[in-house]
């Protein structure tokens, strides 16, 4: 099935609430729909709830209330998890695996046939310029290569929804531009992308729509142009400042 052309949203959150065990309310009655094929950005200050939202979507944490659907599937189903590729904020690569093994193990985890996994790993290494490092272990890769491997790994099982949690945090300008190109290409091929970032110019450059979040609540959601006109300001930075101040 071509997920990007169906009318079923890639992601649907209804009344999503997350209260951590210590009582902290990180997400409150959160509604969000991300259409299939969208390039969608989540913007908000540290502690806004972005990673909590992503962890809930990927079923890495238990939700307190509400509903999450991935291309129409309940997020707790194995089917739903297979539809998502997640590149987490932390570079959580296994230090004992080389680049190729990292990709193949991930393919195995998702039940890919070995021959298909090998083909896909080769393709991923070519796309992300890692072919020359196939036999290099993670600790011997540069920071930029690790970031690229993280995204390549997330894409191994060909998920129609790619979630990138601050993919360019701490990345130099050149690599950021490179990563933008890779991600744009994937999006152009039909992948739905959900991106969190603290770089406003990144959200502006890449995302068709942006959700502003603070204190576990959705403040606004629109295109960059729509947000500027709604808040009556010239730049996305001014939108951000105004929206966050109003919510404080
Ligand atoms: P950042 O931009 O800094 O990555 P974020 O928007 O991703 O922030 P979250 O990591 O989702 O924010 O955190 C939201 C809130 O939930 C924060 O106040 C955080 O301290 C709290 N929180 C996160 N994990 C836990 C936990 N396991 N137990 C209690 N509180 C938590």
UniProtKB/TrEMBL annotation:
UniProt membrane topology term: Peripheral membrane protein
Species in which this protein is naturally found: Conexibacter woesei (strain DSM 14684 / CCUG 47730 / CIP 108061 / JCM 11494 / NBRC 100937 / ID131577)
Keyword Transport in annotation: yes
Residues that span the membrane, as ranges: none
GO annotation terms (biological process): response to antibiotic
GO molecular function: ATP binding; ATP hydrolysis activity
Compartments in which it is found: Cell membrane
Limits of the ABC transporter domain: 11-240
SUPFAM superfamilies named in the record: P-loop containing nucleoside triphosphate hydrolases (SSF52540)
Signal peptide segment: none
Pfam families, alphabetized: ABC_tran
Keywords: Antibiotic resistance, ATP-binding, Nucleotide-binding, Transport
Superkingdom of this protein's organism: Bacteria
InterPro entries: AAA+_ATPase, ABC_transporter-like_ATP-bd, ABC_transporter-like_CS, ABC_transporter_ATP-binding, P-loop_NTPase
Chief location of this protein within or outside the cell: membrane
Protein name as catalogued: ABC transporter related protein
Assigned GO CC terms: plasma membrane
């Amino acid at each position: 099935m071509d997920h990007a052309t169906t009318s079923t949203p890639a992601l649907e959150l209804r009344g999503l609430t997350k209260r951590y065990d210590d009582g902290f309310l990180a997400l409150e009655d959160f509604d969000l729909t991300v259409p299939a094929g969208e390039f969608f950005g989540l913007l908000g200050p540290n502690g806004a709830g972005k990673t909590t939202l992503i962890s809930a979507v990927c079923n890495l944490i238990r939700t307190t209330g509400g509903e999450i659907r991935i291309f129409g599937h309940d997020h707790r189903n194995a089917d739903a998890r297979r539809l998502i590729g997640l590149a987490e904020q932390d570079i959580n690569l296994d230090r004992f695996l080389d680049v190729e093994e990292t990709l193949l193990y991930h393919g195995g985890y998702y039940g890919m046939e070995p021959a298909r996994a090998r083909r896909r790993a080769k393709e991923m290494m070519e796309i992300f310029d890692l072919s020359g490092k196939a036999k290099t272990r993670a600790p011997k890769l540069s920071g930029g290569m690790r970031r690229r491997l993280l995204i390549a790994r997330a894409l191994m099982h060909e998920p129609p929804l790619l979630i990138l949690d601050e993919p360019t945090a701490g990345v130099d300008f050149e690599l950021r531009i490179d990563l933008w190109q890779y991600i744009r290409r994937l999006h152009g091929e039909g992948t739905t992308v959900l991106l969190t970032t603290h770089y406003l110019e990144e959200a502006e450059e890449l995302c068709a729509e942006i959700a502003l979040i603070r204190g576990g609540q959705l403040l606004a959601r629109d295109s960059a142009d729509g947000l500027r006109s709604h808040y009556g300001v010239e730049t996305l930075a001014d939108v951000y400042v105004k929206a966050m101040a109003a919510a404080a």
